[in-house]
Every structure is written in C-alpha cells, then in structure tokens.
Amino acid sequence: GSTIGILGGGQLGRMMAMSAAQLGYKVIGYAPEGDTVAEDVCHDFFANGWGDKPALAAFASKCDVVTWEFENVPVSAVEMIPPQMLAPHPRALEVAQDRLKEKRFVEGLGGTPAPYASVDSDAEYRDAAGRIGAPGILKTCREGYDGKGQWRVATDRDVDSVRFPGRSCVYEGFVDFEAEFSVILVRAKDGEVRFWDSTHNVHHAGMLSTSTLPAPAIVGEQVEEARGLAKKVAEALNYVGVLTLEFFATAKGPVFNEMAPRVHNSGHWTIEGAATSQFENHIRAVCGLPLGDTTTRFASIEMRNIVGAEALTAHEKLADDGEAHLHLYGKSEAREGRKMGHWTRVGQASA
Ligand code: ATP
Ligand code: MG
Ligand code: MG
C-alpha cells in the first residue's frame, strides 16, 4: 500500500510520519483533536472522536495500512478498521492499556513484575499497602503516562496521605533498582525480530529525562534475559511493528515495569544513533518491507528531553554545540512538564 493511516496525533506520530514520507508514503492522521503536532506533517488529517464510526470508516477507506502512535486509542475504535489493514494486532493495545492485564500477561510468559495487588476500593488500597508495604506506588490501571495517575507512598506512615482515586488501580512495591532500561524491538510480518541497544534511562518525577549509551554494566548483564521476555511478548501477540518493554535492573535480575505497544521516547536516539531508526523500522514492518539494520553507530549517545519552557531557548542553544541535533515537536504552548522536543548528541563513531 502507499497510504499509511496513523491513529493519534502526538510527537511519536509526527516522527513516524516523517519517516513514512521519506520512504515515499502518504500519511493520513486521525485524532479527536485537530491542530495536533502530527497533523503538520500529514497529507490529510481527520479530527474526529474515537466513537465516530462514519469518520473512522472514511479514514480507513483512504488508507492501505493503519497503525497507531498512542496506546490509549480505544479498542472499539481500532475494531472499526478492517483487521487485515491493521498493524500491530489490536490485542497488544488491549493488554497494554491496562496495567493489571499487562502484568498478568507478562508474568504468564515468565516475566517478573514488582510485587503488586489489584486495588478497586479504599479498603483494598489499605490492605495492599499493608501487605506489600512502603515505599510503593498506587497507579491507575488505565490512561496514565509520564508519571500521571500515580501516587507515591514513601513510608508506612504515609499510607493515609494517598486515597483511592475511584478508578481501578494497582498498588506496587517500589523497586530498589540500580538502573532503568528499555528493550525496543521491531518484529516484521515474517516474524523476524531485531533489537536496538538498551540505553540507560533516567526519569525525573516519573518522566523520562535522558537515555544514554553506553549503559551501566548491569544493563548489559541483564539485557539478554529482558530481550528474551520481550521477544516472547511480541510472539504471543503476533506483533508487527516496534514494541517496547521497560525494565528495572536490580540485584535480583530484570524487573518488568510496563510495556508500550509502539515506538518509545527512550528510542528517539535511534534517529541519529542507529543505522535505522525506530520510526523507520516501524513503518517498514507495518508496510511489509524488509527491516533495516538496528546497529548503534556511535560509541556514546545521549538523548535529553526538552520539557516546558526550555523549548523557548532551544534555537539559541544551537550556537553552543554544532554537533547537537535538535528536535522540536512544534507544540505551540510550552506548558510546564510538557514534552516539547529533545536533543540528541552522538559521540565518537564506533569502530
Ligand atoms: P510512561 O510515560 O513511561 O508511560 P507511566 O506514567 O506509565 O510512564 P511508569 O513507567 O509506571 O509510568 O513509571 C514512571 C517512572 O516512575 C518509572 O520509569 C520509574 O522511574 C518510576 N517508577 C514507577 N514504578 C516504580 C516502581 N514500582 N519502583 C520504582 N520506580 C518506579
Ligand atoms: Mg506507561
Ligand atoms: Mg513508563
């Protein structure tokens, strides 16, 4: 096919659409709100609700392949798209949209999440916090991102300062990790799987701040096991496209945090740092093209997110370092805590 539909209008869709354009495809976006950052780079855009069946049908009729950049697209909307046009498989959305389902699914494949309990009332919250203990985190099962929809319980005395938010949650024990990393893979229609190197991911207040290579030694020691699990997840979902699993590297081995059935912020470095970026390989996979090489091309890499008002001075900062690559997503309002763009700095070319 020559027209790709993308569900969701954020920066991931924007970067996906830019790769698709490079490969000669037209992109049509779909998101409930207009004026999205993906729309800027799309050939056409549907600003219609996820429940708007005629609009979804019209969108699908203009596309050859449909994918998503956002894991909270309602499954009911995705089911309006003819299944043979869709990649990845919607089952991946169903699992990844719910933290409880996701943890159970990954546990079923041999993965180890943090100790957790399902919480559907204030009494269940207190019970879970009592059993699992503090420190811990209460997380809504659905719709959280960048640390939103999460409440940290620092000590047993702080249990009362957090309240059940009235939506299904999980309470999980805080993992005493040495480093965080993610496994980002791409799986082709024929089942071939390729991995990018795993960066060291540092978060601030629940939001990714930097992804760097080389990662600490412990990441290298645990990445094979983590990749094994990620591959099993991809196979169990008959996944096509880029899939991400986030992990904590701990003294007891890799602990699974969560998955994202899409390209990922911790993979933005692949645009300059890998032979083929996550965005390009996602497009290649969903279009049934051969996958590109995922090898890292540099000995050191740093991706740093640009958050809030930092974006306002980013163009000036280009003068400080001629080798820094600036990516701005074109968001008009530099609201506090909003991901506005990122910097990528690659070091020496690897031998
Ligand atoms: P994303 O934007 O990655 O989707 P999210 O809102 O889904 O974020 P999580 O990945 O669950 O949030 O948590 C965000 C960050 O908070 C983690 O990367 C980690 O730094 C910290 N965190 C979350 N859960 C735990 C835990 N159980 N133990 C230790 N740290 C945790
Ligand atoms: Mg998440
Ligand atoms: Mg996360």
Give an overview in words.
By secondary structure, this protein is of the alpha+beta class. The chain folds into three domains: 3-86, Rossmann fold, CATH 3.40.50; 115-173, Dna Ligase, domain 1, CATH 3.30.1490.20; 179-346, ATP-grasp fold, B domain (D-amino Acid Aminotransferase, Chain A, domain 1, 2-Layer Sandwich), CATH 3.30.470. Helix content is 25%, strand content 28%. The protein has ten helices and 17 strands. Strands 9, 10, 11, 12, 13, 14, 15, 16 and 17 form a nine-stranded antiparallel beta sheet that branches. A four-stranded parallel beta sheet has the order 3-2-1-4, sandwiched between helices. Strand 9 (179-187) and strand 10 form a beta hairpin. Helix 1 crosses helix 9 (278-286). The protein is globular and about 55 Å long. It binds adenosine-5'-triphosphate (ATP) and magnesium ion (MG) (2 copies). InterPro entries: ATP-grasp, ATP-grasp_carboxylate-amine, ATP_grasp_subdomain_1, PreATP-grasp_dom_sf, PurK, PurK_C, PurT/PurK_preATP-grasp, Rudment_hybrid_motif. GO terms for molecular function: 5-(carboxyamino)imidazole ribonucleotide synthase activity; ATP binding; metal ion binding; phosphoribosylaminoimidazole carboxylase activity.
